[in-house]
Amino acid sequence: MSDIRIRDAAQLLGVSDDTVRRWIDAGSLSAHKDGSGRLVVDGEQLAALAVEHARTPRARLGSASSARNRFPGLVTRVVTDTVMAQVEMQCGPFTVVSLMSSESVRELGLRPGSVAVASVKATTVVVETDADSGGAA
User: Of 12, 15, 95, 131, whose CB is crowded by the most CB atoms within 10 A?
Assistant: First the structure.
């Protein structure tokens, strides 16, 4: 079981520390004290909450955007066979799915609730900007 500090949980979900504490107070998320006396939440339960609360960010059509290629998040699901594995992560409002070797999953210790960073390298990257910004097409 992976324990995640309140501050880190909030950062991973893109909310404030107070929001995480309100979820704990409301019973949506359980917490306990770790060996150092800090309040922590269970990583697997946090991953489930992340999936439940994931939402597409509101963006204006044609708004300026370019996603970065590193997405910190929580592992929400791991499916393995003898050779390959599928790892799903909730990275803020985004779900990232990776196919990798089962050996890599074991070596990295990936399981629901694990904190990880998805690094994405794509052959095609779409960059959008406001049509009125004066940029050439």
Answer: 12
Q: And the tokens for 42?
A: 């269970």
| 124 phi and psi angles, rounded to 5 deg | -130, 130
Q: How confident is the model at residue 65 (pLDDT cuts 50, 70, 90)?
A: very low
User: How confident is residue 55, by pLDDT bands cut at 50, 70 and 90?
Assistant: low
What predicted TM-score, i.e. pTM, was given to this entire model?
0.57
Could you give the CA distance from residue 80 to residue 100 in angstroms, rounded to a whole number? 9
Residue 121: which residues within 8 A CB-CB, separation 6 or more? 69
Backbone phi, then psi, for 53, in 5-degree steps? -95, 0
What confidence category does residue 97 fall into, taking pLDDT thresholds of 50, 70 and 90? very high
E strand or H helix at 97: strand 94-101
Answer yes or no: are the C-beta atoms of 52 and 45 closer than 8 Å.
no
Burial class for 4, CB neighbours closer than 10 Å (0-12, 13-18, 19+) = buried
